[in-house]
TrEMBL record, chain A:
Keyword Transmembrane helix tagged: no
Keyword line: Exonuclease, Exosome, Hydrolase, Nuclease, Nucleus, RNA-binding, rRNA processing
GO cellular component, one term: nuclear exosome (RNase complex)
Domain of life: Eukaryota
GO molecular function, one term: exonuclease activity
Exoribonuclease phosphorolytic domain mapped to chain residues: 13-133
A GO biological-process term: poly(A)-dependent snoRNA 3'-end processing
Species this chain originates from: Hibiscus syriacus (Rose of Sharon)
Matching InterPro entries: ExoRNase_PH_dom1, ExoRNase_PH_dom2_sf, PNPase/RNase_PH_dom_sf, Ribosomal_Su5_D2-typ_SF, RNase_PH
Keyword Nuclease: yes
Protein name: Exosome complex exonuclease RRP46 homolog
TrEMBL record, chain B:
Single GO MF annotation: RNA binding
Pfam families found in the cross-reference section: KH_6 (PF15985), Rrp40_N (PF18311), RRP40_S1 (PF21262)
Domain of life, per lineage: Eukaryota
Similarity comment text for this entry: Belongs to the RRP40 family.
Gene Ontology CC entries for this record: cytoplasmic exosome (RNase complex); nuclear exosome (RNase complex); nucleolus
Protein name, per record: Ribosomal RNA-processing protein 40
Compartments reported by the entry: Cytoplasm; Nucleus, Nucleolus
PANTHER family in the record: EXOSOME COMPLEX COMPONENT RRP40, PNAS-3 RELATED
Organism name: Hibiscus syriacus (Rose of Sharon)
Gene Ontology biological process terms from the UniProt entry: CUT catabolic process; exonucleolytic trimming to generate mature 3'-end of 5.8S rRNA from tricistronic rRNA transcript (SSU-rRNA, 5.8S rRNA, LSU-rRNA); nuclear polyadenylation-dependent rRNA catabolic process; poly(A)-dependent snoRNA 3'-end processing; TRAMP-dependent tRNA surveillance pathway; U4 snRNA 3'-end processing
């Protein structure tokens, strides 16, 4: 079943991705991520000494502040902050710097659909730029289910509003490993088959959800490759000097 | 896509690794005693990377991920440029751009006794050596070298301090001399102190020289050797 998307993309096609790191002079790590017209800027400060009142001092604490493009901070922003905090807590290795706080500030520059996934991608790249130790990267994608039952990836804002349901999915990145494939690594399945976060809106059937997961996981490998290329480019740029 | 790499660790050395990449497999290595530097951690028999950077190897058995950050991870025997934040009865509280404040014991000076404790104001810039950097504890610093002599450690007077990334600090301290410092040294005379925590202090007779040296160093981060020399020539032309 073919679907006519306004910008001519196919079902599984992502919008053009752009990512740049180390944009902000004062922040310890920063990244700007854009998917089509959606643009998000993430800044990371830390690790700084001391944790907040109710946090466990034996682990590092991650604090997220979400700044919308316009308007006051309300419940939606607080929800995004909570989702982002729990996602980042699961990818960061919290025991490396106990009793410290790392602040992640997300500034929405433009919202054209798939805002939370873009923010998660930007935050992850900013953490890498700041040198915060992480277990692996988080790669995030938005899948939506149209009224016709078709599953579409990376919607624009107009598409999102017309959809029956959508899901924000966050997967670990695909890793290069010296371990031979299929070796028992202690856990049951290799980490690539895991999922970090899933946020759904609207009504969709269980089969649709699993189909979204499958499409999302396939797209996450493309995003992983993009991240890897981006990190390689910037490291070869700086290694040319001296 | 997962690439099937042969299980020789040489395949990742000097290439970029991303957090999560398993760079070593202990079960397939004969010499099982290896030293892991920054950016690597142990997960049973696999060694995944924690930071993005270039994997480096030094014989016989040292592996680490080389990356450049704005914050500093304290290591023993590093020389750092630190700023006094507060002073307590037994220690000075010092900021070294790390995850925790560091302590400088009040007696860690050459010939230091309870009677001649130096008085550092808040904001004093000091050139110090890291003595202890244990997990979960505040790092400890000292104003003497390992033998107890002053050896140029201590407060830095006058001059100008600016912040850089840790990668640039390491380049400035590498031997042979960094090209930008060599090119500047041929025409100008200045004094410089580089802290491995990403701070650099410059002092010279005239403010013009200080500004030129600081700008040259800050610009040189992403330039190659030839580009650095050309950049320095441009800057020097403007002041002459």
């Amino acid at each position: 079943m073919e679907v006519d998307r306004e910008d001519g993309r196919s079902q599984n096609q992502l919008r053009p991705l752009a990512c740049s790191r180390n944009n902000l002079h004062r922040a310890h790590g920063s990244a700007s991520w854009s998917q089509g017209d959606t643009k998000v800027l993430a800044a990371v400060y830390g690790p700084k000494a001391g944790t907040k009142k109710n946090e466990n001092p034996e682990k590092a604490c991650i604090e997220v502040i979400w700044k919308p493009k316009t308007g006051q901070i309300g419940k939606l922003e607080k929800e995004y902050e909570m989702i982002l905090k729990r996602t980042l807590q699961s990818i960061c290795i919290l025991t490396v710097n106990p009793n410290t706080t790392t602040s992640v500030i997300i500034q929405v520059a433009n919202d054209d659909g798939a805002l939370l996934p873009s923010a998660i991608n930007a935050a992850c790249m900013a953490l890498v730029d700041a040198g915060i130790p992480t277990r692996h990267l988080a790669v995030s994608i938005c899948c939506c289910v149209a009224r016709s039952g078709l599953v579409v990836l990376d919607p624009t804002k107009l598409e999102e509003q017309k959809m029956k349901a959508f899901a924000y999915l966050v997967f670990p990145n695909s890793v290069h490993s010296v371990l031979p494939e299929g070796s028992p690594s202690g856990q049951g399945e290799p980490i690539q088959n895991g999922i970090i976060t899933s946020v759904t809106h609207g009504i969709m059937s269980v089969d649709d959800y699993f189909y979204c997961l499958e499409r999302g996981r396939a797209a996450s490998t493309k995003l992983s490759d993009f991240l890897r290329k981006n990190l390689q480019q910037q490291s070869t740029d700086s290694s040319k000097a001296g | 896509m997962e690439n099937k790499k042969s299980s020789s660790p040489a395949s990742f050395i000097d290439s970029t690794v991303v957090p999560g990449d398993v760079v070593l497999d202990l079960s397939s290595m004969t010499n099982q005693t290896i030293k892991l530097g920054g950016g690597l951690r142990q997960d049973c028999d696999a060694i995944p990377a924690m930071k993005a950077g270039t994997l480096r190897f030094s014989k016989p058995n040292k592996y680490w991920v080389e990356s450049s950050q704005k914050r500093y991870v304290p290591c023993v025997e590093d020389t750092v440029l630190a700023i006094v934040v507060d002073s307590k009865a037994d220690n000075f509280l010092i900021d070294i751009k790390g995850p925790a404040l560091a302590f400088l014991p009040v007696l860690a000076f050459e010939g230091g006794t309870r009677r001649n404790i130096p008085k550092f104001e808040v904001g004093t810039l000091l050139y110090l050596r890291v003595v202890k950097a244990n997990f979960g504890m505040n790092p400890e610093l000292s104003c003497t070298d390992a033998n107890g002599k002053a050896a140029e450690f201590g407060p830095l007077k006058d001059g100008y301090m600016f912040e850089t990334s840790t990668g640039l600090s390491r380049k400035l301290l590498s031997s042979p001399t960094c090209p930008v410092l060599e090119a500047l040294g041929k025409k100008l005379s200045f004094e410089i102190a580089v802290g491995l925590n990403g701070r650099v202090w410059v002092n010279a007779a005239s403010p013009d020289t200080i500004v030129v040296v600081a700008n040259a160093i800050m610009n040189s981060e992403s330039l190659s050797t030839a580009q650095q020399i050309i950049m320095v020539e441009h800057l020097l032309k403007n002041i002459q």
